[in-house]
Amino acid sequence: MGGFAELLFAVIGGGGAPAPELQVEIPLESGARVVMIGGATEDAGRIGVAVAVPVGWADAGGVEGAITAQLAARFAVTPKDGASSFAPEVLPTVTLYCGTLAADSVEAELAELAERLIARECDLALFDAIDDGIRRPPPASAFDRLREATAPGCAEGGGPFGRRPRVAPDLGATAATEAAKARMLEFLAARVGSEGCVIALVGAAPSGEVALAAARAFECLPRARGVAPPAPREAALQAPRRVAAPAGDARGAVGVRLAWHDDPLGDLAALSAACFADAVGSWPEVVERDRLGGLLASPEAEGGMHGRALAATLRELQEQGLTDVRFERLLGRLAERQAATRGDPQATARQLALDGTLHGRYDASALRVERWRTSGRAAAEAALRQQLRPAALVEVVPAAGADG
Q: Which residues of 332-347 are buried (b: 16+ CB within 10 A; e: fewer)?
């Protein structure tokens, strides 16, 4: 990589003044990409890092496959000795590994992560410890119930939420664990690879040495063999739903199921999230996209205030449209969200990795406000009216208030 290193240093300024906003990209022969930009950080020696692997729980095939995807993510950040600097996040179509690393440890820690992603062996005791928190999960949450209601495949065994199976009693604990471990290693071998993988780095100033170190760490990943096609699911809800919260949950949750829409840069999903935030007063805690749509959700407020506010907003969009005042508020919320992300190196790295993996453009989020301003209020109104219909509302409420 010597010649490329010289070119890279020339692009970012080498020994001269840093260009903190300039993007550096290293495409690897295997299909992975390393990207690094400058960003705000309290410690110049620390780097925000995010690795996005384009396979998630919705790609893994049924509830066992979805659990396997989560086991693989946990395994990748559970070294035999010490603790990993990465935290896994399994989304419907992407798995993220995010952390903040010392600049001089980037190569070693990324290399360890890459080694686990291509592992073909796993100690049974280690796997059992990883498996315990997934195959024997905590009680279902209001968000679990929300996902069941908005993606019926989950309730029938098509996702990692809701009716998650425990160890099969007819196999016995040891045999079941061995079988689960074998599925996890097979999943890593068959699905996890470098094709479409993005390693994003954000530091006080771009560093060719750090970017090249990250590239070296991930040279070992083979190309992915592809993902299983998602099982058919209900792409759009036909009527609003009120479902019972888990026992003991007096708060509940409120959400909107987003139908599939041609949204290559994620602009409509983001504007929908901004509209959700405008209704309830805060950004949704759950913002998920899958190949048939997505989900926006937050905990319910006391007295069902969020559900009522969101229902009113959805009706107003259909009956009155999107006013100029609300359109500007939504753009303001998008701008505030982006500014908050850019103030955190790890959050910025996460967004870069997601944008690169999902949208193929690292500026997908950064230029979102400008794109909507260019498209105009009328285009935003038409898109939101199609996406945020009253029928898309789902509320998780105490059992006494649930439908049926």
A: ebbeebbeebbebbbb
Which two three-digit tokens encode residue 47? 């780097």
- The superfamily (CATH) of domain 2-217 is Metalloenzyme, LuxS/M16 peptidase-like (3.30.830.10)
> CATH assignment of 241-401, given 3.40.50.80, 2.40.50.140, 1.20.1290.10, 3.30.830.10?
3.30.830.10
Q: How far is CA 190 from CA 16, 39, 130, in A?
A: 45, 35, 21
- The pair of structure tokens assigned to 77 is 């950040």
Give the count of beta carbons closer than 10 Å to the beta carbon of residue 82.
7
CB 394 within 8 A of CB 257: yes
Residue 211 contacts by C-beta under 8 Å, 6 or more apart in sequence? 8, 24, 26, 34, 36, 201
Span 90-126, pLDDT tens digits: 888 889 999 999 888 888 899 888 888 888 888 777 7
- Alpha carbon 325 to its chain centroid, in Å, reads 31
What pTM was computed for the model? 0.79
Q: Where are the beta strands (DSSP E) in 124-268?
A: 198-203, 241-244, 253-259
Residue 330 pLDDT more than 90? yes
